[in-house]
Amino acid sequence: MYRLIFFSWLAACSGLLFSCSTNNNEETSELKAFEEFYERFHQESDYQMEHISFPLEGLPSNADAETIADNDFRWEAEDWVMQRPFNYDSGGFKRELTTFGDDLVVEKIVSQNGEFGTIRRFAKLGEEWYLIYYAGLNRIEN
Fold first, then answer.
1. Which of the listed residues 14, 19, 72, 128 has the most CB atoms within 10 Å of its CB?
2. CA-to-CA distance for 18 and 48, rounded, in angstroms?
3. What is the per-residue pLDDT for 49?
């Protein structure tokens, strides 16, 4: 039940996030800076570790109802598995990026059938971009 509530809330928030997204024709210099960060984040493991706010808020993959309800899961640096670029063309997933101003980007990756998804949030803190939230791959219940 908690999982259903969580993912219903998540779907509602995603709709809200989409409605606040930046127009693609108005790409700012900050969005370009984010794209450069994003590419480097996935290429260099040291850079990735330096640009994650540990302990990182989020959810593990295949989270159970209790973990979701507790809302206190944190990723630790010693348990982190490096994230690499994802091939959306052959992976059966689609990607949505939503920006909020110049300092927050939410990335949602969802399977083509809508059954599974993951979320990452990136924020500009000072002059640098950081991963501030990561929910691993979980089933999305309607």
1. 14
2. 27
3. 98
